[in-house]
Write a structure and sequence with these properties.
It is built from eight helices and five strands, in the order H-H-E-H-E-H-E-H-E-H-E-H-H. It has 183 residues and is an alpha/beta fold.
Protein backbone atom coordinates (compact mmCIF):
# COMPACT_ATOMS: atom_id res chain seq x y z
CA UNK A 1 0.00 0.00 0.00
CA UNK A 2 2.74 2.47 0.84
CA UNK A 3 4.34 2.03 -2.62
CA UNK A 4 1.04 2.97 -4.33
CA UNK A 5 0.61 5.89 -1.96
CA UNK A 6 4.08 7.18 -2.84
CA UNK A 7 3.39 6.89 -6.57
CA UNK A 8 0.03 8.71 -6.31
CA UNK A 9 1.58 11.39 -4.12
CA UNK A 10 4.34 11.93 -6.68
CA UNK A 11 1.81 12.08 -9.55
CA UNK A 12 -0.38 14.61 -7.72
CA UNK A 13 2.67 16.67 -6.76
CA UNK A 14 3.94 16.73 -10.36
CA UNK A 15 0.49 17.68 -11.66
CA UNK A 16 0.28 20.48 -9.11
CA UNK A 17 3.69 21.82 -10.12
CA UNK A 18 2.67 21.63 -13.78
CA UNK A 19 -0.56 23.50 -13.16
CA UNK A 20 1.22 26.19 -11.14
CA UNK A 21 3.84 26.56 -13.86
CA UNK A 22 1.15 26.91 -16.54
CA UNK A 23 -0.76 29.44 -14.45
CA UNK A 24 2.42 31.49 -13.95
CA UNK A 25 3.15 31.40 -17.71
CA UNK A 26 -0.41 32.54 -18.52
CA UNK A 27 -0.22 35.31 -15.93
CA UNK A 28 3.04 36.59 -17.42
CA UNK A 29 1.57 36.48 -20.95
CA UNK A 30 -1.52 38.40 -19.86
CA UNK A 31 0.61 40.94 -18.04
CA UNK A 32 2.41 41.59 -21.35
CA UNK A 33 -0.94 42.35 -23.02
CA UNK A 34 -1.67 45.56 -21.18
CA UNK A 35 -2.33 47.63 -24.30
CA UNK A 36 -3.55 47.10 -27.84
CA UNK A 37 -0.09 47.65 -29.33
CA UNK A 38 1.24 44.71 -27.28
CA UNK A 39 -1.59 42.50 -28.52
CA UNK A 40 -0.92 43.57 -32.11
CA UNK A 41 2.78 42.70 -31.70
CA UNK A 42 1.92 39.26 -30.32
CA UNK A 43 -0.43 38.66 -33.27
CA UNK A 44 2.36 39.71 -35.66
CA UNK A 45 4.64 37.14 -34.00
CA UNK A 46 2.05 34.35 -34.01
CA UNK A 47 0.76 35.01 -37.54
CA UNK A 48 3.78 36.11 -39.61
CA UNK A 49 2.22 34.55 -42.70
CA UNK A 50 -0.98 36.65 -42.49
CA UNK A 51 -1.12 40.09 -44.08
CA UNK A 52 -2.15 42.76 -41.58
CA UNK A 53 -3.84 45.85 -43.06
CA UNK A 54 -4.58 49.06 -41.20
CA UNK A 55 -7.80 51.05 -41.22
CA UNK A 56 -6.52 53.60 -43.73
CA UNK A 57 -5.71 50.83 -46.21
CA UNK A 58 -9.15 49.27 -45.79
CA UNK A 59 -10.83 52.63 -46.39
CA UNK A 60 -8.67 53.23 -49.49
CA UNK A 61 -9.62 49.80 -50.86
CA UNK A 62 -13.31 50.48 -50.20
CA UNK A 63 -13.13 53.90 -51.89
CA UNK A 64 -11.24 52.69 -54.97
CA UNK A 65 -13.41 53.05 -58.10
CA UNK A 66 -13.11 49.39 -59.04
CA UNK A 67 -12.37 48.02 -55.58
CA UNK A 68 -14.50 45.20 -54.24
CA UNK A 69 -13.82 44.42 -50.60
CA UNK A 70 -15.50 41.71 -48.55
CA UNK A 71 -15.31 42.65 -44.87
CA UNK A 72 -15.80 39.68 -42.56
CA UNK A 73 -16.58 40.01 -38.87
CA UNK A 74 -15.79 36.59 -37.42
CA UNK A 75 -16.99 37.34 -33.89
CA UNK A 76 -19.98 35.67 -32.27
CA UNK A 77 -23.43 36.89 -33.29
CA UNK A 78 -23.98 38.64 -29.94
CA UNK A 79 -20.75 40.61 -30.42
CA UNK A 80 -21.68 41.48 -34.02
CA UNK A 81 -25.13 42.68 -32.89
CA UNK A 82 -23.61 45.29 -30.55
CA UNK A 83 -21.54 46.83 -33.35
CA UNK A 84 -19.68 46.05 -36.53
CA UNK A 85 -18.03 47.79 -39.44
CA UNK A 86 -20.57 49.06 -41.99
CA UNK A 87 -21.14 46.46 -44.69
CA UNK A 88 -19.47 43.63 -42.75
CA UNK A 89 -20.73 40.06 -43.03
CA UNK A 90 -20.83 37.92 -39.87
CA UNK A 91 -19.06 34.71 -40.96
CA UNK A 92 -17.09 32.68 -38.43
CA UNK A 93 -15.29 30.02 -40.46
CA UNK A 94 -13.57 29.50 -43.80
CA UNK A 95 -16.40 27.14 -44.77
CA UNK A 96 -18.99 29.87 -44.13
CA UNK A 97 -16.96 32.38 -46.15
CA UNK A 98 -16.63 30.00 -49.09
CA UNK A 99 -20.38 29.20 -48.99
CA UNK A 100 -21.16 32.93 -48.87
CA UNK A 101 -18.93 33.63 -51.86
CA UNK A 102 -20.47 30.78 -53.84
CA UNK A 103 -24.04 31.89 -53.08
CA UNK A 104 -23.38 35.58 -53.70
CA UNK A 105 -21.25 34.83 -56.79
CA UNK A 106 -18.78 37.42 -55.53
CA UNK A 107 -15.11 37.38 -56.31
CA UNK A 108 -13.81 40.30 -54.23
CA UNK A 109 -10.47 41.89 -54.92
CA UNK A 110 -9.77 41.94 -51.17
CA UNK A 111 -11.09 39.95 -48.21
CA UNK A 112 -10.52 41.61 -44.84
CA UNK A 113 -11.28 39.75 -41.63
CA UNK A 114 -11.61 41.17 -38.14
CA UNK A 115 -12.69 40.19 -34.63
CA UNK A 116 -12.12 42.00 -31.33
CA UNK A 117 -8.32 42.35 -31.29
CA UNK A 118 -7.23 40.28 -34.30
CA UNK A 119 -6.49 36.79 -32.99
CA UNK A 120 -9.59 34.97 -34.24
CA UNK A 121 -9.61 36.93 -37.49
CA UNK A 122 -5.92 36.21 -38.15
CA UNK A 123 -6.73 32.51 -37.73
CA UNK A 124 -9.57 32.89 -40.24
CA UNK A 125 -7.40 34.84 -42.71
CA UNK A 126 -4.75 32.11 -42.44
CA UNK A 127 -7.37 29.42 -43.09
CA UNK A 128 -8.65 31.34 -46.12
CA UNK A 129 -5.09 31.77 -47.44
CA UNK A 130 -4.61 28.01 -47.14
CA UNK A 131 -7.84 27.46 -49.10
CA UNK A 132 -6.43 29.52 -51.95
CA UNK A 133 -7.75 32.97 -51.03
CA UNK A 134 -4.41 34.76 -51.11
CA UNK A 135 -6.27 38.10 -51.04
CA UNK A 136 -7.43 37.51 -47.45
CA UNK A 137 -5.89 39.76 -44.80
CA UNK A 138 -6.56 40.69 -41.20
CA UNK A 139 -7.56 44.18 -40.03
CA UNK A 140 -4.71 45.16 -37.70
CA UNK A 141 -6.07 45.80 -34.21
CA UNK A 142 -9.48 44.63 -35.42
CA UNK A 143 -12.64 46.37 -34.22
CA UNK A 144 -10.94 47.63 -31.04
CA UNK A 145 -8.39 49.65 -33.05
CA UNK A 146 -11.14 50.75 -35.47
CA UNK A 147 -13.32 52.00 -32.58
CA UNK A 148 -10.39 53.60 -30.75
CA UNK A 149 -9.59 55.50 -33.95
CA UNK A 150 -13.20 56.82 -33.98
CA UNK A 151 -14.08 55.14 -37.26
CA UNK A 152 -17.74 54.40 -38.10
CA UNK A 153 -19.56 51.48 -36.49
CA UNK A 154 -23.17 50.40 -36.70
CA UNK A 155 -25.42 48.28 -34.51
CA UNK A 156 -27.75 45.43 -35.49
CA UNK A 157 -30.32 47.96 -36.74
CA UNK A 158 -27.79 49.81 -38.90
CA UNK A 159 -27.68 52.81 -36.54
CA UNK A 160 -24.36 54.49 -35.74
CA UNK A 161 -22.80 53.51 -32.43
CA UNK A 162 -19.50 53.92 -30.61
CA UNK A 163 -19.93 50.88 -28.36
CA UNK A 164 -18.07 47.61 -28.88
CA UNK A 165 -18.68 44.24 -27.24
CA UNK A 166 -15.44 43.70 -25.28
CA UNK A 167 -15.54 39.86 -25.57
CA UNK A 168 -14.41 39.59 -21.94
CA UNK A 169 -13.91 42.09 -19.12
CA UNK A 170 -10.12 41.61 -19.37
CA UNK A 171 -10.11 42.87 -22.96
CA UNK A 172 -12.38 45.85 -22.22
CA UNK A 173 -9.32 47.70 -20.92
CA UNK A 174 -7.95 47.78 -24.46
CA UNK A 175 -10.82 50.01 -25.56
CA UNK A 176 -10.81 53.76 -25.02
CA UNK A 177 -12.96 54.86 -22.03
CA UNK A 178 -16.68 54.73 -22.79
CA UNK A 179 -16.33 52.46 -25.84
CA UNK A 180 -16.94 49.10 -24.13
CA UNK A 181 -20.57 48.00 -24.20
CA UNK A 182 -22.17 46.41 -21.17
CA UNK A 183 -23.00 42.79 -21.73
Amino acid sequence: MSHRFAIWTAVILLLGIGILGAAFWVYEKLEDLSDLESVESLIDEDFPDVAQVDGDTLIAWENAPDGDVLIIDCRKAKEFAVSHLPGAENLTSAREVIEFLEKSKRSPEHIVTYCSVGWRSSKLARALNKKGFENAANLRGAIFRWANDDRPLEDSEGKPTEKVHPYHSFWAGLLEPGKAASY
